[in-house]
Amino acid sequence: MSVRVVTARTRRLLVVSLEFSAIFAVVAVLVTLEQFLPARFEPALVYQIGAADVNPFTYITASYLHVDQQHLSGNAIAYLAGAGLCYVLCLAVDERQWYWLTFLSLLLVVPFLTAWANMNVYVDLLPNVPVRGFSDIASAFIGFLCVALVVFVRALHSRLTTIYVGVLVFGVVVTELLAMYAQPLPTEVLFLALVVLFVGIGWNGWRSVRSDSFNLRISVGSAVVVLVLLAVIFLIVQAMFPANVTTNGTFTNVYAHGTGFGLGVVIAAWGHRYWATMEW
Questions:
Q1: pTM confidence score
Q2: What is the DSSP letter of 52?
Q3: Which stretches does DSSP call E strand in the chain?
């Protein structure tokens, strides 16, 4: 029996190690393209805002190229935070199938749809320059992280608690964006956010303590996970959506970031309905 247990643990450790390697392999591809792709090939792999004749293939390839190492570093950090933390959450609640199908969808679907939006929806709002960068996909993984956090909570707690956490997570994102772009922040929005925060915490705490299935370790652990990931999401969203979108002549495409984030949420939520093993 002990040999079988050790073998099962070893196999699981090997699988997890390989899957983490696959997550990091995406960054390795980005670094390889940045460092070794000859400059003469890049024009054929990016598209230009407002161009009349664009190869649809570049809608995908442009997301995997970068202007410079600093551009690459920021996107790689956001991607690793989103993809890595999502994987840990999915691993904890045994939703690896959902994770990998969503992972592949974000890598392939998000750049194409974001590029289409850039060319057809935001075309009058963007500078007429070649587009490149992984930020749309990195943003999508942050959207995925928001959904994965809600799924993690649902696996351990009631549906009502899950709804509260979902409102809290997306409420933090919306309030943060309003604080940056709708200045000054409306007092009503701030008041509503505080009410949702404190009433929700008190109500969920009271219900949990009164429940026959209350487990202090699980409750405290879940609260810590939610608070830590909320802080991570808050910081990355702040970096993805700067108050000043033009710095030193460089334009930050917050429209693509928002599209990527939204697509990450939608694809992850839709995927959980059809690819996940957990019943709600």
A1: 0.90
A2: S
A3: 47-48, 130-131, 246-247, 250-251
**Backbone torsions φ then ψ of 48, nearest 5 degrees:** -115, 135
pLDDT tens digits, 134-182? 999 999 999 999 999 999 999 988 788 888 889 889 988 988 888 888 7
Rounded to a whole number of angstroms, the CA Rg of the chain reads 21
Tokens of 204: 């969920």
Q: Which residues contact 26 (CB under 8 A, 6 or more apart)?
A: 79, 83, 107
β-pair type (47-48, 130-131): antiparallel
Helix (H) or strand (E) holding 175: helix 159-181
62, 45 Cβ separation under 8 angstroms? yes
pLDDT in tens, 200-223: 666 666 666 556 566 667 778 888
The token pair at 280 is 């709600």
